[in-house]
Amino acid sequence: MRFQVPQFIEIEDKIFGPLTFKQFIYIAGSIGLAIIFFTFLPTFIAILISLPVVGFGAMLAFYKVNGKPFINTVESAVKYFLGSKLYLWKKVDRAPVAKTPEARAAEQVYVPKLSQSKLKDLAWSLDVTANQNPVTKDEGEEDK
């Protein structure tokens, strides 16, 4: 039995003509606020206040920043400005300290070198250990 897989799951459905539900809410809310301003305020002040409100509603509905809705940018900005900020890097200027020759000698790490005889002894001990404890096959395995 075959099932049909949805293709465009990231695209919202157009409910109110060419607008999605979110776009309709943003536009309707900003126009509703503009109507309230015109009702209770003088015309000149209502125009000054309602233009930015309607513009912001249009940006929320249609504008995208880097392919993401503008509301994500607004949310990030609000979180940044209202949230606490943690600064971790604070450079402290320190005067350089001169090292004494004794301190430089102590910094050098001694690396032992294997001589020819020690290398042979190590290889021989590995061979003897391998012969004493041979690797056994499980009972269920067969040679390939």
Report on the architecture of this protein.
The chain is mainly alpha-helical and 144 residues long. The protein has a domain at 21-82. Helices cover 53% and strands 3% of the residues. It has 5 helices and 2 strands. It has helices spanning 21-40, 43-62, 70-82, 101-107, 116-132, and strands at 64-65, 68-69. A two-stranded antiparallel ribbon has the order 1-2. A hairpin with a 2-residue loop joins strand 1 (64-65) and strand 2 (68-69). Helix 1 packs antiparallel against helix 2 (43-62). The longest helix has 20 residues, at 21-40. The protein is elongated, with a radius of gyration of 38 Å. The two termini are 42 Å apart. The mean pLDDT is 81.
Percent helix range? 40-55%
C-alpha termini separation: 42 Å
Secondary structure class reads mainly alpha
> What integer value in Å does the Rg equal?
38 Å
- Poorly predicted tracts of residues: none
Topology:
Blueprint (H helix, E strand, L loop, with lengths): L20 H20 L2 H20 L1 E2 L2 E2 H13 L18 H7 L8 H17 L12
Antiparallel strand pairs: 1-2
Helix pairs in contact: 1-2
Write out key terms for the chains shown.
mainly alpha; two-stranded antiparallel sheet; 53% helix; elongated
Task: Give the structure's gist in a few sentences.
The protein is mostly helical and about 140 residues long. It has helices spanning about 20-40, 45-60, 70-80, 100-105, 115-130; strands spanning about 65, 70. Helix 1 packs antiparallel against helix 2.
